[in-house]
């Protein structure tokens, strides 16, 4: 069997050796942007910016699309596929051009429809670590056949998918092999960091590189303290492997403010212990205190020229369809 065919066979069957052997490192990108585009695209499909939409964000279900007008990937698969397909089609993206699903961890609100999506769209693959796939297979309501659609990835080892260089990194949560993702294309980076009780060193490293940042802002401390959750659940949410509160998220973003950070998307807001208004106000105040002007992501003339846009992703509905170029 030729090396090329062996590579394809390993990729189809989710062999972990594929990503170790064929991952592309930092040295392949230095001072060679033309080669990057040639590697990732046909000549008529150059990268012009990230297209991003969230189909739902929170414990009821999480799923987002990231890519460009030619296609992309899904991040998590916890939202009804019919809703996802409909919104993609309405924005000119064929499901045939969605290359796969990246999973952040194995909780049901992130993986509920993963097998259904790949079963119905057999060109797609599930990208996750072997350990995370092991966690999926321990779920009683997840088909054993899901492993046939896996391509193994590994934290801190970059790989190419849908025109993006993607690097998974460690996050802190009470699930199996939790991770965030850094997506790089066209000289910009989009970083996803959700479901984390504390900000790990590696998560902080990648978030500092972001031009566009999707960060968890799960709960308001006062609402959680006085709310209806039983004490054991409050302790779980507050814990280092729980969720991130508004103030910690805001303080962190304020600490990494730079001229390159343009968008902050607040994700996984609690339905019981938070509101979009409280979360965005906390983040906005922290960024303003750090010396930057803040817009609300509405694209109105008054807001579009602000230094940084802050937008809370809806819990049950799709967000605005964003085209992020600068």
Report on this model:
By secondary structure, the protein is α/β, with parallel strands linked by helices. It has a single domain (9-324), classed as 4-Layer Sandwich (Metallo-beta-lactamase, Chain A), CATH 3.60.15. It has helices at residues 3-12, 16-22, 33-40, 81-90, 108-111, 114-120, 130-137, 201-207, 221-226, 231-238, 246-255, 276-289; strands at residues 50-56, 63-68, 71-75, 98-102, 125-128, 150-152, 159-161, 164-170, 179-185, 188-193, 212-216, 263-267, 294-295, 308-312, 322-324. Strand 2 (63-68) and strand 3 (71-75) form a beta hairpin. Helix 11 packs parallel to helix 12. Mean pLDDT is 86; it is low at 1-44.
> Between the first and last Cα atoms, what is the distance in angstroms?
45 Å
Number of domains: 1
| Radius of gyration (Å) | 19 Å
Question: What is the CATH C level class, in words?
Answer: Alpha Beta
Number of β-strand runs: 15
Q: Uncertain runs with pLDDT below 50, 5 residues or more?
A: 1-44
**Helicity level, as a percent range?**
25-40%
Number of helices: 12
CATH architecture: 4-Layer Sandwich
CATH homologous superfamily heading: Ribonuclease Z/Hydroxyacylglutathione hydrolase-like
Largest sheet: 8 strands, mixed
- In N-to-C order, the SSE pattern is HHHEEEHEHHEHEEEEEHEHHHEHEEE
Q: What's the mean pLDDT score?
A: 86
CATH topology, by name, is: Metallo-beta-lactamase, Chain A
């Amino acid at each position: 069997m030729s090396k090329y065919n062996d590579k394809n066979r390993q990729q189809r069957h989710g062999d972990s050796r594929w990503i170790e052997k064929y991952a592309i490192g930092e040295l392949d990108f230095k001072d060679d942007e033309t080669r990057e585009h040639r590697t990732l695209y046909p000549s008529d499909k150059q990268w012009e910016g990230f297209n991003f939409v969230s189909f739902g964000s929170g414990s009821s279900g999480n799923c987002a699309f990231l890519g460009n007008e030619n296609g992309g990937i899904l991040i998590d698969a916890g939202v009804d596929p019919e809703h996802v397909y409909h919104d993609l089609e309405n924005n000119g993206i064929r499901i045939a051009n969605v290359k796969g699903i990246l999973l952040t961890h194995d909780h049901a609100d992130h993986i509920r429809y993963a097998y259904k999506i790949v079963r119905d769209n057999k060109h797609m693959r599930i990208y996750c670590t072997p350990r995370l796939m092991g966690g999926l297979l321990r779920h009683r309501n997840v088909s054993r056949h899901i492993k046939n659609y896996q391509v193994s990835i590994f934290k801190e080892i970059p790989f190419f998918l849908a025109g993006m260089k993607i690097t998974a990194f460690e996050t802190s949560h009470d699930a199996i092999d939790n991770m965030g993702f850094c997506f790089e294309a066209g000289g910009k980076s989009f970083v996803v960091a959700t479901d984390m009780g504390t900000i790990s060193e590696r998560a902080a490293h990648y978030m500092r590189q972001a031009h566009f940042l999707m960060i968890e802002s799960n709960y308001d401390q006062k609402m959680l303290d006085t709310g209806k959750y039983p004490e054991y659940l409050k302790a779980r949410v507050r814990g280092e492997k729980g969720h991130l509160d508004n103030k910690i998220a805001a303080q962190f973003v304020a600490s990494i403010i730079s001229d390159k950070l343009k968008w902050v998307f607040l994700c996984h807001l609690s339905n019981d212990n938070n509101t979009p208004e409280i979360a965005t106000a906390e983040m906005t105040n922290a960024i303003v205190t750090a010396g930057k002007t803040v817009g609300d992501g509405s694209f109105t003339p008054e807001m579009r020229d602000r230094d940084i846009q802050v937008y809370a992703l809806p819990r049950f509905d799709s967000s605005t369809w964003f085209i992020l170029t600068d």
